[in-house]
């Protein structure tokens, strides 16, 4: 099964206008156990970042915890997200999933972290942090 690291601190999911500029403070000086993800689309910019780095004047959902699959994973590896999202869906824990070049990440609501951890451990995944 998979080794999963619980990253420290809370995360936020933000929505910005499509033409918004991201301040460098969002991603500068990130710690080794932090991640930022940005997705641009014609209808807006989605930003996932540590809660203490949310730029001002954006739509934001906070109090998420971030789980990172310990990698790197090869791009040809299949079924990783399914093996994580399936048990969480069965436990009725909502998820925001995103990927970097080397691995996959899941956000789960901070208030459901205990249930999320139990669901993932029950299918054999190991969680550290």
Topology (SSEs and partners):
Layout: E1 3-6, E2 11-16, E3 37-41, E4 44-50, E5 59-69, H1 80-90, E6 96-99, E7 104-109, H2 113-122, E8 126-128
Parallel strand pairs: 1-8
Antiparallel strand pairs: 1-5, 2-4, 2-5, 3-4, 5-7, 6-7
Helix pairs in contact: 1-2
Explain the overall architecture.
The chain has 129 residues and is of the alpha+beta class. It has a single domain, classed as VC0802-like (2-Layer Sandwich), CATH 3.30.2130.10. It contains two helices and eight strands, in the order βββββαββαβ. The longest helix is centred in the middle third of the chain and has 11 residues, at 80-90. The two termini are 17 Å apart.
Please give a handful of descriptors for the protein shown.
8 strands, VC0802-like, 129 residues, 16% helix, alpha+beta
Summarize the structure.
By secondary structure, this protein is α+β, with helices and mostly antiparallel strands. Helix content is 16%, strand content 36%.
Distance between the termini: 17 Å
What's the CATH C level? Alpha Beta
- Structural category is alpha+beta
**Which stretches are low in confidence, meaning pLDDT under 50 for 5 or more residues running?**
none
User: What pattern of helices and strands is seen along the backbone?
Assistant: EEEEEHEEHE
The radius of gyration over CA amounts to 15 Å
Residue share in helices? 10-25%
